[in-house]
Amino acid sequence: AQSVAQPEDQVNVAEGNPLTVKCTYSVSGNPYLFWYVQYPNRGLQFLLKYITGDNLVKGSYGFEAEFNKSQTSFHLKKPSALVSDSALYFCAVRDRGDYKLSFGAGTTVTVRA
Amino acid sequence: GAGVSQSPSNKVTEKGKDVELRCDPISGHTALYWYRQSLGQGLEFLIYFQGNSAPDKSGLPSDRFSAERTGGSVSTLTIQRTQQEDSAVYLCASSLGGSNTGELFFGEGSRLTVL
């Protein structure tokens, strides 16, 4: 079984400040990890993924995420948030032996000017 | 097309009626998923198609829900005798398949409202 937890329903930050969106996962084997963003009334857009190799992965729009196996975490980060980053963010996990992608409940990010 | 296309974008129906939601995946993508997104909730897996293999229907919430994929391309999700709790956004996604490292590409969804 695989599952994802996003412990914060909402994250509020000021523009220019660092942004972190937390994610922890549970899989029976080794994970493939993904982050998606959803803007209002739009579908989900892929941001980045961890498959193997370097634990720090970089993605679209200046976002990055760090895979931490010991803490089973894959937190999303951005050094300097923009108002346009305000959206709903989803973390997702897939067991390497599976095809099904399991999503967290999502975290609403609000960046205030 | 360039992306995953879903129709209708909005559907309002009366309780008890049947609805069909359509998904046209990215050309060449052999894997197709349906998810349901309810207000304030995450994405709930419904069904998965991969090529000509038997679909994984394990996420369908009841026997009122069914889906098919014709010719390995377009998929239709059918909800019979709709209930108010079926109101949600139904998202379709496709991926290259053949490997499970690939990301899913999502359509913009079909918003279903059951009155």
Residue-averaged pLDDT of chain A: 94
Q: Which strand-content bin applies to the residues of chain A?
A: over 45%
> How helix-rich are the residues of chain A, as a percent range?
under 10%
Which value, in Å, is the CA radius of gyration of chain B?
A: 13 Å
Low-confidence stretches of chain B: none
Summarize the biggest pleated sheet of chain B. 6 strands, mixed
| Distance between the amino and carboxyl termini of chain A | 41 Å
Strand content of chain B: over 45%
| Helix content bin of chain B | under 10%
Assembly status: heterodimer
Overall 3D form of chain B: globular
What is the radius of gyration of chain A? 13 Å
Q: Based on Cα principal axes, name the global outline of chain A.
A: globular
Overall SS class of chain A: mainly beta
Number of helices of chain A: 0
Number of strands of chain B: 10
Q: Figure out the total of helices of chain B.
A: 0
* Series of secondary-structure elements of chain B, N-terminal to C-terminal: EEEEEEEEEE
Mean pLDDT rating of chain B: 92
Descriptors for this entry?
heterodimer, A: 113 residues, mainly beta, 4-stranded antiparallel beta sheet, B: 115 residues, 6-stranded mixed beta sheet, globular
Descriptive account of the structure:
Chain A is mostly beta strands and 113 residues long. In chain A, 0% of the residues lie in helices and 53% in strands. Chain A has strands spanning 3-5, 10-14, 19-21, 24-26, 31-38, 44-50, 56-58, 64-68, 73-78, 87-95, 102-103, 107-112. With 115 residues, chain B is mainly beta. Chain B is 0% helix and 46% strand. Chain B is built from no helices and ten strands. Chain B has strands spanning 5-7, 10-13, 19-24, 31-37, 43-50, 65-69, 75-79, 88-95, 105-106, 110-114. In chain B, the strands form two sheets. In chain B, strands 2, 4, 5, 8, 9 and 10 form a six-stranded mixed β-sheet that branches. In chain B, strands 1-3-7-6 form a four-stranded antiparallel β-sheet, with no helix packed on it. Chain B is globular and about 40 Å long. The termini of chain B are far apart. The chains are: A mainly beta (113), B mainly beta (115). The A-B interface holds A 32, 34, 36, 41-46, 49, 51, 90, 94, 96, 98-106 and B 4, 31, 33, 35, 41-43, 45, 48, 50, 56, 91, 93, 100-101, 103-109.
